[in-house]
Amino acid sequence: MGVALCVAALWVALSAFGADIFERRRMDMIREIERDIGYTAEMTGRKRFDERVMEAMATVARHDFVPRSEQAQAYENRPLAIGYGQTISQPYIVALMTDLLEPRDGHTVLEIGTGSGYQAAVLSKLVRRVYSVEIIPELAAAGSERLRRLGYDNVIVRHSDGYYGWEEHGPYDGIIVTAAAARVPPPLIGQLAPGGRMVIPIGDRFTTQYLMLITRSPEGRIQTRQVLPVRFVPLTGEH
User: Fold this and answer.
1) Which domains are assigned to the chain?
2) Ranges in the chain, pLDDT < 50
């Protein structure tokens, strides 16, 4: 009994030590994001990000969304491989795209490209509901299970071609696309609500990609703005 208690106590202590290391690294990541905000302010027009966005970035445990082999690098400010030729985006880019969306508590958001579920987890802290579409069945299943297990109950994932969005739950207050399209998919424009905002990388792997902000006015007028150059995996599908 005494040995069992000692082993249990040691396990709790090691778990707490690991959690403390991840917490410190996450705070280091937040400081790096804040530095990048300053470096890119002239391009993005944002000298700071919304406090709610930064709080979500500081709360969501990125190491839960990367393979075990990548957990030591989970809080580095760079993309990491998650398998199937896909990546989890650089933390600064996740924060920027989230901030550009200007999420609010009552919003419903569509995400194209679930990946490991990290971006959806960040958004879930900021909006009422996240609908996420993933074209790779293994990632859709794993992402859905991970989000459910970690308690992100307001995220719903399905396996489908994100080019076509998820029409039955639209229109959306925000649409976020985590893969680069050659052009803005017309179905996504159609699913953007009046007053809504879409953030999407545009370009292919052989040319410069740009993060684009697309807004629909309350009257329905579409406006686009180029934010900054980025590098994303391509949006795939039958289209």
Assistant:
1) 2-230 (3.40.50.150)
2) 1, 3, 5-17
Q: Which of 69, 89, 124, 217 is the catalytic position?
A: 89
Q: Cα separations (Å) of 148 from 56, 109, 136, 166?
A: 18, 18, 18, 20
For residue 236, the surrounding DSSP H or E stretch is none
- In the annotation, is 116 catalytic? no
pLDDT at 80: 96
Q: In this predicted structure, what is the pLDDT of residue 239? A: 63
pLDDT of residue 186: 96
The predicted model scores a pTM of: 0.90
Q: How far apart, in whole angstroms, are the C-alpha atoms of residue 189 and residue 198?
A: 8
- The C-alpha atoms of residue 172 and residue 110 are separated, in whole angstroms, by 6
Cα–Cα distance, 237 to 163 (Å, whole number): 7
pLDDT for 47 equals 94
Cβ partners under 8 Å of residue 217, min gap 6 = 194, 195, 223
